Amino acid sequence: MQAHGCFIGSAAVMVLSDQDDLVAAARNLMTFFMDESCGQCTPCRVGTQQMLAALSSDQWDETLLTRLSQVMVDASICGLGQAAPNPVLGLLKDFRGELAARGVQLIASTGAPAAMRGDA
Ligand code: SF4
Q1: How many angstroms separate the Cα of 73 from the Cα of each of 19, 21, 24, 105?
Q2: What is the pLDDT of residues 45-102, one digit of tens each?
Q3: Of 13, 32, 43, 104, which one's alpha carbon is 20 to 30 angstroms from that of 22?
Q4: What is d(CA 50, CA 52) in angstroms, rounded to the nearest whole number?
Q5: Confidence band, pLDDT 50/70/90 cuts, at residue 117
């Protein structure tokens, strides 16, 4: 599976059809990860909150989402925080047309979220 860019994680499998709303699924999954975060480490605790906030709009800041994802993957202590960005990264990589069809506009910014800079 790694050869196809997949990450088996806990081996739980979710199957979505072409009738499912992938934007709603991404928001739902990030809500799950935020709720399940134990809060021990900042990249996961704050990152899931910041990502969910960024996904709540119909304008997704791709720069912000990508930066948050990188911090979470690199610096989260355990697999939950490391895997939490995967649904969003998958959408940005392979489902950009679906995002547009669901009314999500991708924008680019230059700023990291305040909470991740340590000045919030
Ligand atoms: S990455 Fe793991 S240890 Fe860190 S806050 Fe998330 S669940 Fe807790």
Answers
A1: 30, 25, 22, 24
A2: 999 999 999 999 999 999 999 999 999 999 999 999 999 999 999 999 999 999 999 9
A3: 43
A4: 5
A5: low
CA of residue 47 to ligand 1 center, whole Å: 11
Helix, strand, or coil (residue 107)? strand
Residue closest via CA to ligand 1's atom 2 equals: 78
- pLDDT recorded at residue 120: 46
Ligand 1 in contact with 84 (CB < 6 A)? Answer: no
User: Distance from CA of residue 33 to its chain's centroid?
Assistant: 9
Query: CB–CB of 87/26 below 8 Å?
Result: yes
